[in-house]
Amino acid sequence: MADGVAARSRHVGLVVRGPAPGGLSARDVERAVGVPLLASMRPQPGLAAQLDDGGLRLRKGTPLAVAAGRVLEGVRRGAA
């Protein structure tokens, strides 16, 4: 999949959610896939229900908001 994305854009990165039940780390995934890790995040309880109930509301400090901020920082660095 990474090759398919890379064929369409030179800006490719990973966001990994964990912890993995088998102990695989975000860095392990980065090495296995061969794509830079932009962010890793812990699960965010209630996220699926929030999406089902009408949308995404990012609250400061939540796992998704922190990961999204890291991705945005990476995008900004890549665009400079």
Short description:
Helices cover 45% and strands 11% of the residues. The chain has 80 residues and is α+β, with helices and mostly antiparallel strands.
Dominant shape: globular
Q: If you average the pLDDT, what whole number results?
A: 86
Q: In which range does the helix fraction lie?
A: 40-55%
What pattern of helices and strands is seen along the backbone? HEHEHH
Give me the count of strands.
Answer: 2
Give Rg in angstroms: 14 Å
Tell me what the structure shows.
The chain is of the alpha+beta class. It is built from 4 helices and 2 strands. It has helices at residues 2-6, 26-33, 47-52, 63-79, and strands at residues 14-17, 37-41. A two-stranded parallel sheet has the order 1-2. Strand 1 (14-17), helix 2 (26-33) and strand 2 form a beta-alpha-beta unit. The longest helix has 17 residues, at 63-79. The two termini are 26 Å apart. The mean pLDDT is 86.
